[in-house]
Amino acid sequence: MVEQKPVTLSFEVHQPHRLRTNGVKKDASSLYERYFDDGMNEHFFKDVAENCYFPATDRLLAAAEHFLEKDKQFKVNFSISSSWIAQAKKYHPELIDLLNMFPDDSIDFIGQAHYHSLAGLFDRKDEFREQLRTHKKIIKKEFGKTPAVMTNTELIYHNGIGEISAEEGFEGVFTEGAPRILEWRSPNHIYTQPHMKKDEGNAILLRNRQLTDDVGYRFSAEWWDEYPLNAGKYASWLSAEQGELVNLFMDYETFGEHHWEGTGILSFLSDLPHKVLSREDLKFASVREVTDFEPKGIFDAFEFNTVSWADQEMDETAWLGNQVQRKLFQHLEELEDKVKKVGKENEEFLEVWRKFLTSDHLHHIATKTYDDHSVHNYFSYFNHPYQGFAVLFDHLSDFRIQVEKELRS
């Protein structure tokens, strides 16, 4: 019998709470409305829902139902931010219902930080731990499953985050297979970190960047020598990969939003489960299933060599790469004790502070060049990073004043 190589297919599903670009709304009826623009949130969410969330999820659900009674099942994993869940419940609650229609064994959920935040980069990790627990409870409440594998926001990872993952009860943690850490080794194995044993729950799953980006970035690129890509060709690439498994982890908006329907991307998504499962040597797996694999080596990402899936550097510089980003992040970190003190009496301050921690805000004010610059601009709703600087600085300065007033009252 031919040995079947597991393919884990995972999607990042996220929408931020966007900031008001025309300044703080000082006559707002709530602290949240003072800083955040629900009109913009609704516009973006409904647009992406029409282009991506509904058509892509319909296709994945159809595949899960088609293979339910077959020898091999289709399985898919979602890393869904709590800010996406909050907006889905507000603007399109039927999306939550749709995800709950998947046959039980065909869908799994990945844990992450509450509101897709950057708290994992704080020196103190109490807030990060609390956010992991909060997100886990939300996923359990909405989808009936407790995540067994986590990923930190944007796959940001170092050994300390791995230790917290294990201590918080996760069986594994997902991150980027950065070449500077892997060197000559393949991402197609399970790894562990120094001084940790597998039975302590520290299975490290690594994203196969090449194969993921063949879909996520290159699918509709006519200059690409593999264009056009179809599901049969892609399944043959998965089959040819050396190693015990292949982990694919991509932005869900790849399907219908980043690559619009006319490129054939949604047809590719429909065909992929059938082409993969028609091969004797491939199968789909949930992320929790592959944590049982024996680690093949050490993935040693010390704290000053942090890994992420962002940009060419694959580190934290997408959010902390320039002086203004670092200064604003420092302001957010320094507010923790004050906000939590105020939050005991007025929880809205804590909620707003956590929404400010969402990674998108600092991502939009990166000042990188070349291809990375294009990526940051694509995702940003600001006209220029300097507009983002001004907006975020204005909002945080005002928020700090409101916190200080509350402490004095």
Describe the structure.
By secondary structure, the chain is of the alpha/beta class. It has two domains: 301 residues, 7-stranded beta/alpha barrel; 92 residues. The strands form two sheets. Strands 1, 2, 3, 7 and 8 form a five-stranded parallel sheet that branches. Helix 7 links the parallel strand 5 and strand 6.
User: Would you tell me the overall average pLDDT?
Assistant: 94
Count of individual domains: 2
Terminal CA distance: 73 Å
CATH top level of the largest domain is: Alpha Beta
- From the alpha-carbon coordinates, what is the Rg to the nearest angstrom? 21 Å
- Sheet-strand content, in percent, reads 5-15%
Instruction: Tell the overall outline.
Output: globular
Query: Count of helices?
Result: 18
Describe what is shown at a glance.
With 409 residues, the protein is an alpha/beta fold. It has 18 helices and eight strands.
